[in-house]
Amino acid sequence: MAFEVQSEIRKRLIDAFTDASGEFLSGQSIAELIGCSRTAVWKHIEGLREEGFTIEAVRRKGYRIVDTPQKLSSDEIRLGLKTDFIGQKVFYYESVDSTQKIANDLSTENAPEGTLVIADEQTSGRGRMERKWHSPKGEGIWMSLLVRPEIPPQQAPQLTLLTAVAAVRAIEEAAGLTPVIKWPNDIMVNSKKIAGILTEMQAEADRIHSVIIGIGINVNQDRTDFPKELLGTATSLAIETGNGLPRSRIIQEFCAQFEKLYLLYLEKGFYPIKLLWESYARGIGSFMRARTYNGVIEGVALGITEDGVLKIESSDGTIHKIYSADIEFPLS
């Protein structure tokens, strides 16, 4: 199905309901706020109802949204979104091969910073090291975020670590869980993966055109939804909390957390993000095993460098810098 892009009037309508915080808005006040006729207001209200929104209409009071649809949509994501630019432009798809590919295409078409591409299903989702990411219909959050930071290309990997912190904080706020980060970008709950991040860059030698950050979060899967090979390693928010969760709430919280951290990063640099990342990281100060392309390195994790590189001190006192690896935490 072709993507859905919000009209400017629809976006203003959603912003007006967001600002109203559940209070009634008269048809006249809506018309003045969004700059259209009352007839046009009525048509857009009906459009929201067709999407599954429950809208109460009371004579002499006006309209208010009392419930949102279970199905994701651009409008549902924007209703309640408290950001200035992250997620303010949303492209929503029923099913795609990869949101990363679409976001990369949008980047070349000069889509604005903060553009979010979201799919209800990915048929060819992928994670780090080209591994397949299981992205079933209606169960999780499969999205890609476009940013255009004015930083040197060699600093782009820092955004992966920033995104991991934003994802952990969003899950804490929206689901009440306490995830940890497994270097570099796996979000874990009870030693099982609940979210992952994939960062890709379009750049020249000295200038970034865009960074596309893919985020996958398992939300409402139960154990029978995972392939057999993932049963021992993957989990979802619903499994861990015992309740289904509205995906739009988690997306909104992620956007808010990311925007706050991103602006901090652009102003203060990576150091405050580094400290936050290490505070959420699993295994700092503990023994771990790193399986790299060149062999296995064992030792105590010391933290990360300014470039986001993992430091491990082996038993002979050698400090190894780990750029890419699978991390394990042996029992002994």
UniProtKB/TrEMBL annotation:
Enzymatic reactions: biotin + L-lysyl-[protein] + ATP = N(6)-biotinyl-L-lysyl-[protein] + AMP + diphosphate + H(+)
Keyword annotations of the record: ATP-binding, Biotin, DNA-binding, Ligase, Nucleotide-binding, Repressor, Transcription, Transcription regulation
Cited InterPro entries: aa-tRNA-synth_II/BPL/LPL, Bifunct_BirA, Biotin_CoA_COase_ligase, Biotin_operon_repress_HTH, BPL_C, BPL_LPL_catalytic, HTH_11, Transcriptional_repressor_C
Limits of the BPL/LPL catalytic domain: 75-266
Binding positions (biotin): 122, 126-128, 193
Origin: domain of life: Bacteria
TM annotation in the entry: none
Keyword Chaperone part of the UniProt annotation: no
N-terminal signal peptide: none
Molecular function in Gene Ontology: ATP binding; biotin--[biotin carboxyl-carrier protein] ligase activity; DNA binding; transferase activity
DNA-binding region (UniProt annotation): 27-46
EC id: 6.3.4.15
An example Gene Ontology CC term for this record: cytoplasm
BP term (GO), one: regulation of DNA-templated transcription
Pfam families per the UniProt record, alphabetical: BPL_C (PF02237), BPL_LplA_LipB (PF03099), HTH_11 (PF08279)
NCBIfam families reported in the protein's UniProt record: birA_ligase (TIGR00121), birA_repr_reg (TIGR00122)
Record's function text: Acts both as a biotin--[acetyl-CoA-carboxylase] ligase and a repressor.
Family of the protein in this entry: Belongs to the biotin--protein ligase family.
Protein's name according to its UniProt entry: Bifunctional ligase/repressor BirA
Organism annotation: Neobacillus notoginsengisoli
Lineage of producing organism: Bacteria, Bacillati, Bacillota, Bacilli, Bacillales
